[in-house]
Batch of 2 targets.
Target 1
Amino acid sequence: MSAHRPNVVLRRTMPLLAVLTAGLMLLTGCSLTAGSGNSAAEPGMTSGADKAEPVTPYDVTPLIKPNGKYIGVALEGVPESLKAVSPYKEKIGKQPNVLEFYSAFGDGFDTSGVRRIYQTGALPFIAWEPFKPSLKAIADGTQDAYIKKYARDLVQLNLPVAISFGHEMNGDWYAWGRTKATPAQYVAAWRHIHDLFQDAGATNVIWVWTPNVITPMPNVGLKQYYPGDAYVDWAGMIGYYALTGPHTFDTLYGPTMDQIRTFTKKPIFIAETAAQEGQRRRADVDDLFDGVKAHDDVLGFVWFNIPKRADWRIEISPLALAEYRKRATDPGFGFDIRKQ
């Protein structure tokens, strides 16, 4: 069993008096305490007998800098249902090892859904969206009870989870974006949440800071939104191959990567991408795989396979899907996170 997997602390050998007492109880028809079986607990779960016993916190370090590349996806219905995952796997010919989903700030932590994702060999990735209350209110502590409960649920589950709080904060299209909140308020809210998680012992979180690529707003500096290396594990990016605008890895992601590298050396993860349907889509798929493979510090990507303002689903373009499937056969992409 890998060192980073949760291990239930072994029980001490029962002293002789306890053994004799147990035998006497059996002879007199009394039963022993329930849950005395010795079956191993599943990761993220404890057996009845082990409820009060400590477990080793899940070590996410091997997942922060893995040996292979992530090939992830966002699918409709996840995590309430994973019925879309198997058909998608069949289409691309590989099990995705990141499953991203979107959760509004204020919603409860979906323990069952996250566990189901992990059991497929994929990293659960939560895009945590603070539509309300304001970032200032979060930083001021008005939501501490909710945040602490969320963190405690994560600790109890004891499985790896990636969280991106307030993605695309440098844009102007979200309630927490640059026209609704200041960079200082964003940083303060992020740090406050992170500190509460740390206090709760929720060290099984990979913190993903995720601005939009800077091409649409080149004059909005990213450093002012950065919470600091002590608060971030991955420097993410969100950027799509559209019919107009940048259409190569270097022109779409390069300027953002260059700016990020002026203030942090954290690994980079493309938290959302896809290519718009059109004649260039097959080439865009090639370019994405080539770009991720060429950069050692880019850990992988999540393909947004959901219709939203455009139909980003890879399966609607047979040639692009065939290319995606061919490129996904590369053994450098995809790995079972449970075996890292």
Target 2
Amino acid sequence: MRTTNDLTPHAATAAAILPLVGGAANVTSVAHCMTRLRLGLRDRTLVREDALRSLPSVLGVVTDDDSYQIVLGPGTVARVTPEFEALVAGTADALAARGAEWKAARQQRNATPLKLLLRRIANIFVPLIPALIGCGVVAGLGGLLVNLGWLPSLTPALAAIASGFMALIAVFVGHNTAKEFGGTPVLGGAVAAIVVYAGVAKVTAFGMTLAPGQGGVLGALAAALLGTYVEKWCRRWVPEALDVLVTPTLTVLITGLVTLYVLMYTAGELSTAVGTGANWLLDHTGVFAGLVLGGLFLPLVMLGLHQALIPLHTTLIQQQGYTVLLPVLAMAGAGQVGAALAVYVRLHHDQSLRTTIRSALPAGLLGVGEPLIYGVSLPLGRPFVTACAGGAAGGAFVGFFSMLGDKIGSTAIGPSGWALFPLLKGTGGLALTAAIYAGGLLTGYVVGFAATYFFGLGRTVGGTVSGVCDSSKQGQDTDLGGNPPP
């Protein structure tokens, strides 16, 4: 048996977390996203939250209707999760059964239709983010080489590598949609593949010839969702002896015909409307749109609802080669960084909080905002609001140049902050695009810092700042006014 000294740092973190969440018997499910360890817990009253928050590797704790989320930060969470899973593996079957029962009961009590829909959309697209990031970075590298005129023999290969996934993303969306809504994943992928099949160019719908890829990810999402309901209907009415033959055939046939003659055209019109609307919004109301989008994005991240925007980003990338929304939304992270720096400067006597900021700031500069949100600004209350003000200012800056005709966008989703520079693409050339984005980040940093320094921390009293929690209370949840929740 290994002692604590024998464990790797990530295994030691997992071992430290487990007893504080009630032990293996209290864990019903284990998962993770880019920054958070997501646990299903049978009884949340068994959680020793103060002790959990005090662990050096824990940057914050978030609760929602479905899971108990421990913020560990990017990279760390992907390494801690398997160690944590290994600790509870001995009771995996019992945990899975109990977890399903617990989750269903909790969802029935607390989940609203809107929350369930947004979570399901996120569950469909979040698994695709690693591929989107990888292909986007390769696309950005290829574009840079083209602009510089370097290695012309290599750029076609990079274009093929970057474009292969995007050409078939509809299949992956269909697979994940069917899986999320209780259908057979491969059948979801099969009906979604119709959307990108070259042979659809021979089909006429609504008096128009279809084009491969028409409708994009929205069409694939609709096709797979319809296929799931057709499959479930067949499972209820087709005799068991014929199920293996009839159900897949009817699912593919019925869904395929509806996809070709209804969904592809309808989703294509909707996708076009999304692109047109996004461009119009920034071209005509750029400052106001940037102000609103940049200012409200941090609350969306806090609630985990920002993942629901992925279909819009993906649709814009498919249509235009980049999404104009992401650089504006990325300004929220700049405001958060500026606010954290102001807290670091003002609260110079709070070494615990300053240590948290130093550890979370690199992730914040790269666009991962959860560590700073849950470890710094949200527990303090008012700095969260002033961070939103910084994001609003940065968004307005980017939106202003969009009104002048210099739109900027990102060729992929996932990264933001400094990590977005390799993915930038715009109408004004690489140098101008990078300069506008950098100007937006700088604006967000400065306004977030100034708003927090002068308005977000109250007045100094005896070497400390009034109106915020001290380091011993830093980990407690607070509302936006700095007060504990009821």
